[in-house]
Amino acid sequence: MTQTFSRTDRLLLAGAVVLVGGAALTRYVDINSVLAFVLSGLTIAALASLVGRSVDQLGDRLGAGATGVLQSALGNLPELFVCIFALRAGLTKVVEAAVIGSILGNVLLVLGLAFIVGGLRNGVQRFDSERARVITAMMLLAVIAMLLPSLAFQLHTPAASHERGLSVFAAIVLLLVFICSVPSSIRRTADEPDGDQDHAGAQGGWPLPLAVGMLAVTGVLAAFVSDWFIHALEPAIASLHISQAFAGLVIVAIAGNAVENVVGIQLAARNQADYALSVILNSPLQIALVLAPLLVLLSFVVGGAAFVLVFPPLLIATVVAAVLAVSFIIIDGESVWLEGAALVGLYGVIAAAFWWG
């Protein structure tokens, strides 16, 4: 076992086991709801990291391109489970805010932290501006398509009374765009440098059965812990006096995107700006192309509240403004730490605006 796992792997696995045990205890024993909420949220983050680690270990078998696509798809698996259980509990506002919050968290908070860490450690960082423009253009188009049912509803157009049908149609179109993008994503990711190549080579790879088994186990555990997280969410919201919107926008979004949060910042610190930008910006693109459409379609079968692509006006305004701001910042193909500080500051103001709802 010691030859298979690195020290970091063992610490992560041990931490996840302890957190799962603690989260299970707080779920089935009458303990403080805030403690249960915090433990289950930390457990989701730890499991998300294990999912990412397991996918990374499959890289030698699947190839860099396929692994990159799989990483993007499975990296959001814990958040998908959280949103499904939230819909079953009728917490529609949490799900709406979590979807938008995942986009905001990556394009503002994580990218901003990556610029700060990378800039302070390495000075001005330069990246392929053409590739960055392609990713941001795709993200902007996907976000606009995702928000069109909201605009139809807010502007009281004839389509406003058909919000569910329009949401389903938009969801199917977005999923088809994602399917069409997979071949080019595989080719693009295959051409990118492996940000963890030296690290992986130093610690040795996991055997294939172990990597697949770990991926399966963490996926199942993520489903259970997501249920515990939602069970503790409402009492914790009442105790902490925060809104459902803030809980979804900040807490659920950050916990569910732990993989991209950590990996993107680490890559920026190593001065691998191109790879860091790709990891960070591909996550919100997958939110718009995959996670939100899946939630629309799955809400027909999981029970609970229906989910449609109709968001409150403030969520619409903030996500469009954030994507446009990031597009302008990266258009010159370089970043400095001050730009990162501005992005993090904007995220903080947006989060504060949703504290009360």
Molecular structure report:
The protein is mainly α and 357 residues long. It has one domain (7-353): Up-down Bundle (A middle domain of Talin 1), CATH 1.20.1420.30. The protein has 15 helices and two strands. The chain has helices at residues 7-28, 33-57, 59-62, 64-75, 77-88, 92-122, 129-154, 163-191, 197-203, 208-240, 244-256, 258-269, 273-298, 313-330, 337-353; strands at residues 125-126, 334-335. It has a two-stranded antiparallel ribbon with strand order 1-2. Helix 2 packs antiparallel against helix 4 (64-75) and helix 2 (33-57) packs parallel to helix 11. It is globular and about 55 Å long. Residues 195-203 have low confidence and may be disordered.
H/E element order: HHHHHHEHHHHHHHHEH
- The CATH topology name reads A middle domain of Talin 1
Q: Proportion of β residues?
A: under 5%
As laid out across the biggest beta sheet, the strand order is: 1-2
CATH architecture: Up-down Bundle
Instruction: Indicate the radius of gyration in whole angstroms.
Output: 20 Å
Mean pLDDT: 82
What do we call the CATH homologous superfamily?
NCX, central ion-binding region
Global shape: globular
Instruction: Write down the CATH class.
Output: Mainly Alpha
Q: Specify the biggest β-sheet.
A: 2 strands, antiparallel
**Count of helical stretches:** 15
Structural class: mainly alpha
Domain count, please report it: 1
Q: Note the gap between the termini.
A: 48 Å
Q: Pick out the low-confidence regions.
A: 195-203
- What's the total number of strands? 2
Helicity level:
over 70%
